[in-house]
Amino acid sequence: MALELFSKKTFRHEFNGCCPEELVKLSYEILKKCRGLPLAIRAIFGLLSRKKKVQSEWKKVLNDIDFEFKTNSQLVGIFEILSFSYVDLPFHLKSCLLYFGTFPKDYSLSKGRLRQLWISEGFVQVMEEKSLKEEAEGK
What we know:
The chain is mainly alpha-helical. The protein contains eight helices and no strands. Helix 1 packs parallel to helix 3.
């Protein structure tokens, strides 16, 4: 899920929104460093979307991330706190939260439109006798 959202945003104007084969392994390594945290993923794909889509550029970003984690204790602490909150979310809510990363900063979106988008992406699953809309609304 994270790689799909990462790819849609990072490669939205090229490669048909898909990660090129030569960058898939590096993408997974970078996402692993982000520990699945939407805030970290968003920051990284914002950075990578402005970089050349070549291995040398992406390896440099991966090395920079490694360096920051090893030398910046505050950054590690922030990631640990965010990770506790994210890990505790039910799976379907993780997908919904990650989806916010596909929108630009300060993007305005109505609840109704967001529900429609979540339903169309398949993030909303009906467990009982509810409509998709009711499930998306949490009723």
